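Troubleshooting: if your tokenizer reports a length mismatch, compare your output against this known-good record of 203 residues.
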Amino acid sequence: EQRPALLRDLLDRVRATPAIQTACYVRIIPLSGSGSNNYMTAEGVASQPEDRVANMNYVSDGSFTTVGIPHIAGRDLDARDTPSSPRVAVVNESFARRFFGDADPIGRTFREAAEAGKPEPVYQIVGVVGNTKYRSLREDDEPIAWVAATQEERPGYPAFLVRSAEPSAAIDALRRTFHDVHPSIVIAFGILEERIAELMVRD
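Known-good structure output:
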């Protein structure tokens, strides 16, 4: 029950850490090879696409600025998105085109498939962002929906993403930040630019 408040506190502390420009937390790290997808149904649309699978990620506010994904329309996920407010999502251009065609997706809703006997979550689209890679560099531009991690009743253990012009200084500062919260927190670091370079060399 205390985990949502802990994550909020950690994010605030990370953003206040020296050498950090922007920060967020996410369930799926970009280009990590990991992912989560499900069947979606666009509400208010007469015919559903043949391929109804879309990738998903559960993220905090500030994710698109931190990763560098361009904003197209609508708003970002923010403090308005709480466990007691209607579920919301930001989708990419591929998602909007596949499920809503040329129609404006802002304000439209879609349902995510659920296990038998459980209600299907319904999300209202509040924003659209540009296409980006999800699991790998070679993949096509696939539909992606980012939903508000702050609306999850039982959030997992997300990864923090930070943008910094001084990675070494940021890592040292972040170690101190997390140690101040609790000395037993175990953290590991990776640099996304290095990950991309490794993938390119491998290809």
